[in-house]
Specification:
about 280 residues, alpha/beta, 2-enoyl-CoA Hydratase, Chain A, domain 1, six-stranded mixed beta sheet, four-stranded mixed beta sheet, 10 helices, 10 strands, globular
Length: about 280
């Protein structure tokens, strides 16, 4: 197929030197887009990053030629390290609310997208990075002894919101999720595959995006209306409708919890650790 690239709209161009999100059409199949997270070193989910990701997905959904999307990191090693700590540490309630609302919007856009979505997890994927992965329709992960994935919020003194947990439980089951959430477990690639947190592991010698393309093409053999209808009206319907009823309360809960002195103290310790590492 002819190779083509999406032209970014003015609103999607970052004021920074490079955009946090790079969107390309796959050179071998122009029905499949590649969305690369490009906020080194850890693809932290800041408000700006999340807004750019939401816009990228929305733009692809409006492109009648695109039927599938592969989400991956532009640089291997860290898929996404999760929420940007600096969006939560030392912020007032208004700022916290704006950040959390953007996270909600981006998650919902990905979770219920009519696009067939594949997470090509080419690095460690804790917390919010895990959330992005489990919100896709299929997950392939590069096989490396240092790569891990899971919702480890308790390790930072935080509680994973129920809408993080629902897709987690869908992947690994209630009892496994319960234990993992208590302990803040990060799974190795082999363990993640064993419990169903990922669908497939990919040898480092292979191109993970090529594997993701093959899986996307398998799903695209099903008529779009049937696949989308199953996703939005059956398998994810209850979570989508439930989420709409708790959104405002969820923001208020987040503001209350993160503003707590103990939580701010835990976040502060983590910030100091990051600063020490940077030196």
């Amino acid at each position: 197929m002819l190779r083509r690239f999406l032209k970014p709209t003015v609103s999607s161009i970052s004021k920074r030197a490079a955009s946090s999100i790079i969107t390309e059409i796959h050179p071998e199949n122009d029905e499949v887009a590649i969305v690369k997270m490009n906020a080194p070193p850890i693809n932290a989910l800041s408000k700006t990053f999340l807004a750019e990701l939401e816009l990228a997905i929305d733009t692809l959904e409006k492109d009648e030629d695109v039927r599938a999307m592969i989400l991956t990191a532009n640089r291997p090693g860290i898929f996404s390290a999760g929420l940007d700590i600096f969006e939560m540490y030392g912020k007032d309630k208004e700022s916290l609310g704006e950040f959390w609302t953007q996270l909600q919007n981006t998650w919902l856009k990905l979770y219920k997208s009519p696009l067939m979505t594949v997470a090509a997890i080419n690095g460690t994927s804790p917390a919010g990075g895990c959330l992005l992965s489990i919100s896709c329709d299929y997950r392939v992960m590069a096989d490396h002894k240092k790569f891990q994935i899971g919702l480890n919020e308790t390790k930072l003194g935080l509680v994973a919101p129920p809408w993080f947990v629902k897709p987690y439980v869908s992947c690994i089951g209630e009892r496994e999720a319960e234990k993992a959430l208590y302990l803040g477990t990060l799974y190795s690639v082999d363990d993640a595959l064993k419990i169903g947190l990922i669908d497939e592991k990919v040898d480092l010698k292979e191109n993970i995006v090529d594997v993701a393309l093959e899986r996307a093409e398998q799903f695209l053999e099903v008529p779009d209306f049937a696949r989308i209808g199953t996703k939005q009206s059956i398998t994810r319907k209850d979570t989508i409708e439930w989420f709409d009823t708790i959104r405002e309360k969820d923001v208020a809960v987040f503001q209350h919890i993160v503003s707590d002195k103990k939580v701010q103290g835990a976040l502060g310790m983590y910030v100091q650790m990051l600063k020490a590492k940077s030196k």
